[in-house]
Amino acid sequence: MPDRVVIAHLFPEALNLYGDIGNIVTLARRATWRGIEAEIRDVGAGDATRLAGADVIFIGGGADQHQRAVADALLALADPLRRAIDDGAALLAVCAGYQNLGHAFRSPLVGEIPGPGLLDVETEMPTGAERFVGGIALEVDAGSPIALGDAEGRRRIVGFENHSGRTALGPTMRPLGRVLIGRGNDGASGFEGAIALPGEGGLTGLRIGTYLHGPLLPRNPHLADFVLASGLGRGGPVALAPLPDDAEWAAHDRFADDWTAIRPGVYRRSSIGRLRDRLGALIGF
Fold this sequence. Notes:
Layout: E1 4-10, H1 21-32, E2 37-43, E3 56-59, H2 64-76, H3 78-86, E4 90-94, H4 96-100, E5 104-107, E6 111-114, E7 121-124, E8 132-139, H5 145-148, E9 156-163, E10 166-169, E11 177-181, E12 191-192, E13 194-196, E14 207-210, H6 221-233, H7 246-262, H8 264-269, H9 271-283
Parallel strand pairs: 1-2, 1-3, 3-4, 4-14, 5-7
Antiparallel strand pairs: 5-6, 7-10, 8-9, 8-11, 11-12, 13-14
Helix pairs in contact: 1-6
């Protein structure tokens, strides 16, 4: 077992919507609780050398102007990012990061933003598109290593979505999971996120893209550990010592139960739902 993990956080000041930095805190804490030293490196434009030796790479969500602002920097970092992932680093990209790391993002607000194609996806934001806002739960396949890596075999992942993007997956990625509550990648396919396991799509490292904010990892300890173990294993997940995750699973279950009770239709007709939609339209994808 490695005694140190290097976590690279891309553009932490620009892309940190809905507490996405909590994902960095979760990865670091779950490492240190196991006696693994965690080094967190902030990575911005021109910081390619800080990606060398990274075990986990994270990029969060942001508003449209932030996506536009980091687009050129991401293209400049494309080769170092690809080398890091091909060296075994695990990538987790949330919302705007999910969109920006694909082949392209197209929107009437910002035009076309080309991406480095590290995730085999493309995203469109049609004019007048419905914004998908609210709690979301998805279920991974029974054979997924995310489910198998948890002692209780849990398969559900929960979070919060707020986006107008419609994301389509290319042939080298599969959906992260099937939508149980919420809208997901496009509101029609029934799937959310994208995943390429280590070795798939021509790259050694794990790659995950998702619209789940909240932040994602505190309520999903099995996913946090899968990302951490994949990065530490440099292409093949290592076995991590178990942690007492009763509090994390209680938060996970309560979140899913609450949103199951609310129901999407009731939520969208409520005054709180309409207010959140208006705010979401102003501050993020």
